[in-house]
Amino acid sequence: MIKHDNIKTLGELRTSGWKSKNIKTEIRDNLVKKWESGENPFPGIIGYEDSVIPDMERAILSKHNILLLGLRGQAKTRMARQMISLLDEYIPVVTGSEILDDPFSPISSFAKKQIQRNGDNTPIHWVHRTERYGEKLATPDVSVADLIGDIDPIKAANLKLSFSDEEVIHYGIIPRSNRCIFVINELPDLQARIQVSLFNLLEEGDLQIRGFKLRLPLDIQFIFTANPEDYTNRGSIVTPLKDRIQSQILTHYPKSIEQSMAITEQESYSKDDRLKNINVSDLIKRLIEQVAMEARNSEMVDKKSGVSARLTISASENAISAAERRVTQNKETKTQVWINDLQGIIPSITGKVELVYEGEQEGPYQVAIHLLDKSIRTLFKQYFPDPDLMKKKRKTPTGKTENPYQSIVQWFDGGNHLNLFFDSKDEDKQQMLYKVSGLHALVKQHYPLINDMENALLMEFVLHGLAAHSMINKKMVEGKVMFNDLMGSMLNLGNVENEYREDEQDEDF
Length: 509
Known about the structure:
By secondary structure, this protein is α/β, with parallel strands linked by helices. The protein has helices at residues 10-16, 23-37, 52-61, 76-82, 109-118, 144-147, 153-159, 192-196, 199-203, 230-233, 239-244, 257-267, 282-297, 310-329, 346-350, 357-362, 364-383, 387-390, 406-413, 426-434, 439-446, 452-468, 486-508, and strands spanning 66-69, 90-94, 124-128, 133-137, 149-151, 169-171, 180-185, 220-226, 247-250, 278-279, 335-336, 418-421, 473-477, 480-484. The protein has a five-stranded parallel sheet, with helices on one face. A three-stranded antiparallel sheet has the order 12-14-13, sandwiched between helices. A two-stranded antiparallel ribbon has the order 2-3. Helix 12 (257-267) crosses helix 14. Mean pLDDT is 87; it is low at 493-509.
């Protein structure tokens, strides 16, 4: 490896044996080197091992400009930023050049004059790969001057130069990203006339500024990101531009709960030392991930908009924070995240799902509650017998109950009810759960080896699961969840409605 610290002039660079290469070749070569050393070119990207990453690697080998097309929260920008690791650690640049001129292949008027004037004594400096990444969020107000550049009359006046002189040009962000990776996020948001200005850059590799007779063969690795919904919502990628982007790669959401859990675990602050006394069970993690999966399939949520992985990340953090708040207020030393603590993830859901008309009518809060209940219903069948199959079962001739939930339901049918407060101590919650006849026995029957806290969590899960399957009633009021019998709750609701009608009649009278 060349010791760049000792090379400060063009002559020293020549004798060092350093060879210049274009950026796409550089990225390609470093990708191959990572394979040879057994290093992962895209660390931390979960769920794309057999789909997106192979497509990216093929595009890099082909020296293509790339369009990452997918819904929000699918790691598009993250993958683009990780390509910095595929650049050489340092490259030489003509000192003073605004566009990182290669000392062996200068393209700007400034660099050419410097080398012509100073020869091998032309000063150079070295640029680290972290400085060779440019990113622009496309917005409707972006202009050609922002991206490409414009003539600077003040510069012309100060230098006493004619407008025909190349040095009066003020370069935009793209020329300044020469020999760099340049990313344009949300490409469809660029106005069509601005997209047209990129044609020459992608096909011929040069730029044009206000009809200036200038050929500037820029060396850039372009990466674009776009959301398919943008094609109809806010704009579109003009066809000739799309045609010039050689590889279009489709991204996607995690295909399994396990992948989603791994992403959430990696991105959330759940490993914070402050939280070492708060246990988060596998059940809780799966319930949070299931909420996102239910949202992506819900009729109330706009599927075209997508449900970002950020939902489960922030929901996981909120669930842990709910437990942290409770354990701190109760002055306990340790706790676990209970099912009731998942009420704390509602703000993480309401702000991250785009609702269709039916969802708007229902309201964001009710949609969030519905998604949480649906995730409980879906996962419940993976832990316990399907309640829908058990509802019709009765006692056998020997008197044994085929329905494992019958004793629990009968306890509530007998007029009993259970209030689980959100901020109650763990010990108090366990005592309340043990009051329900048959609940502890059911959990122990299916999970005989678990400890007391895990047992209590599954007991709480059973109650929420039976409510989700309409075998008992669940009602959330401020500060607590109330469980009671289904028929009694319906009768109470009818009484309330009758009282309301009577009150209306009295007012009319």
